[in-house]
User: What shape does this take?
Amino acid sequence: MKRLRLAIGLSAGLMMGATLPACSGRSGETGSAPGKEAMEAASARAGAAPASAQDLEFTAPAGWIAETPSSSMRKAQYRLPRAEGDPEDAEMNVFFFSGEGGAVQDNIDRWISQFQKSDGSPAAGAVSRREVHGIIITIVDVGGIYLSGSGMMTETKAKPNFRMLAAVAETPAGPWFFKLTGPAATIARWESSFQSFIDTIQ
Assistant: This one.
């Protein structure tokens, strides 16, 4: 089990889009800098240095492999090993945009729009809400053909039989985003640990 303590209160300079610093630590710690593939990105192995007294904590479940975030906008990034027969591992990314990031529903709609049914029609996602340690969290579960890389200046790749579990945690400093994507069987394998992970947010 790896514990990650990440700063929520960031400076005005960071709010203007400056790159956030990544920190690495010893085994038993997890953390790093934020990201988004044209606004979403990456993964970490350590605890990020706090920038204020207000922090967000969460614990990565056993089996999740912490990686160094591939984007300056990602707070943390994990790889979840694939189920037998699946073409790739799943990826879990954590984002925080320093009080920005858009409305919760806008993000839910955008995530769902990244999927479509086999006939090309829009996919339908299941949305739920719950409170965890006083934080309102909205979760979306959507599957189908994943239009990977859909965003600014990125090539879109259609990945059939994919699934996403994603969440928005509404904190006083702004929303945090948790996005798990991968082949459907792999996501099913890790679904219970994703739910357990969400329950550790505080």
About this structure: Strands lie at 2-7, 55-60, 65-67, 74-80, 90-96, 115-116, 126-132, 135-148, 157-171, 174-183. The CA atoms of residues 11 and 117 lie 42 Å apart. The first helix runs from residue 12 to 15.
